[in-house]
Amino acid sequence: xxxxxxxxxxxxxxxxxxxxxxxxxxxxxxxxxxxxxxxxxxxxxxxxxxxxxxxxxxxxxxxxxxxxxxxxxxxxxxxxxxxxxxxxxxxxxxxxxxxxxxxxxxxxxxxxxxxxxxxxxxxxxxxxxxxxxxxxxxxxxxxxxxxxxxxxxxxxxxxxxxxxxxxxx
Length: 169
Description:
It holds the Pfam family MarR. The protein is mainly alpha-helical.
């Protein structure tokens, strides 16, 4: 018996994933724009906020956000003009510079967090049991590590790396 190629469950899985991701992005977008952030602004700022010392090498930030290096440069330039991030040179490697979350950037994120977390709870995590959520997160990490192996690049380095002249906290 010949199976209809359009009834393949792999297409259903992919379609559902895209529909869910798109729907969640639309819900989040409304919260971000209310505090003057674009989706990419939020993604950039939250990755910095959740990184050790609230900073990442520009190249690592580009890899984590799936933007090109020139794309992340433009985003960081704009966020820097707004005072939400600053650049920091690494004195041990002239080629490296860091994007660092500023206090103003942290405050902007804090302004959107209550609504964003409420949206996540309402439209995503709150719909799943704790076990379903745990299993789902495990499955997402397996897939992410294959399709976006650079999604966490720089996190280990940033937590152990120190540029010359910096104090250890």
